[in-house]
Specification:
This protein is of the alpha+beta class. The chain folds into two domains: 1-46; 65-216, Heat Shock Protein 90 (2-Layer Sandwich). Helix content is 50%, strand content 21%. It has seven helices and seven strands, in the order H-E-H-H-E-E-H-E-E-H-H-E-E-H. It has helices at 2-46, 69-79, 81-86, 105-120, 152-158, 160-168, 207-224, and strands at 65-68, 90-95, 100-103, 127-135, 138-145, 172-178, 182-190. The strands form two sheets. The chain has a five-stranded mixed β-sheet with strand order 2-4-5-7-6, sandwiched between helices. The protein has a two-stranded antiparallel sheet with strand order 1-3. Helix 2 packs across helix 4 (105-120) and helix 4 (105-120) packs antiparallel against helix 6 (160-168). The chain is globular, with a radius of gyration of 25 Å. The relative contact order is 0.12.
């Protein structure tokens, strides 16, 4: 009799536990979906492109290839035109012709996207410049903003994932932040095959030297109108 009583209790507990477990799993799934939809909504309001295929370190395999830097940087800048327009930020591009890098295409685009997005989101930022040039055997890509509230430690923490991803591509990243002047993030990658003749390497890009002529050109164009 005692055995029958225990069996009945266990059967009752199992009958209750199964619906509770199913309910918990359903609630968890709803929370995950709701969280993703909320994140998507926030990104859409901010104007930032939604990347549903971000790389997971140690889980995503890489495939090295030779990429055309001009084409890749132009594509990245176009992705963030909406976010820049919302924040009244002017995007500018200065890339040396016939420039190539050897890296994983997906990783390269994700790294550049993070650099450009963080630069645009800087408070009191009016312009973002993406520049690239060959220096020795490497390609130097710089993303500069003129936000006056430059904070090196903050930018480094924001770009920690991008820096880790860059390291796996044999690249290095540096952050130079100067209060009142802006922030420049420099990415150095192995150069790929290019038709540029040896000895035609450019010197390091100085964002100020590019912004000043560009500003004068805009002013002259406005005066002519």
């Amino acid at each position: 009799m005692l055995q029958r009583g225990l069996t009945a209790i266990l059967d009752s507990a199992a009958a209750v536990a199964l619906p509770v477990t199913l309910l918990a799993l359903t609630v968890s799934a709803v929370i995950v979906v709701a969280g993703w939809r909320w994140r998507r909504y926030l990104l859409q309001r901010q104007g930032r492109p939604i990347d549903t295929d971000r790389i997971e370190l140690s889980q995503t395999p890489f495939a090295a290839g030779v990429l055309d830097v001009a084409a890749e940087t132009m594509a990245v800048m176009r992705r963030f035109e909406g976010l820049a327009a919302q924040r009244f930020v002017t995007l500018e591009l200065a890339v040396q012709p016939e420039l190539a890098v050897r890296t994983d295409p997906h990783a390269f685009r994700e790294i550049l996207g993070d650099l450009v997005a963080r630069a645009i989101e800087q408070s009191a930022c009016e312009r973002v410049l993406l520049g690239a040039a060959r220096i020795g055997g490497r390609v130097q890509i710089s993303v500069s903003d003129d936000g006056v509230h430059a904070d090196r430690a903050l930018r480094q923490s924001q770009l920690r994932a991008a820096e880790s991803l860059a390291a796996l591509q044999g690249a290095t990243m540096e952050v130079d932040a100067r209060t009142g002047q802006g922030t420049t993030v420099v990415l150095r990658l192995p150069a790929g095959a290019t038709s540029r003749q040896p000895g035609a390497e450019a010197g390091a890009l100085d964002p100020a030297s590019i912004w000043a002529p560009a500003q004068r050109a805009r002013e002259d164009s406005g005066a002519e109108r």
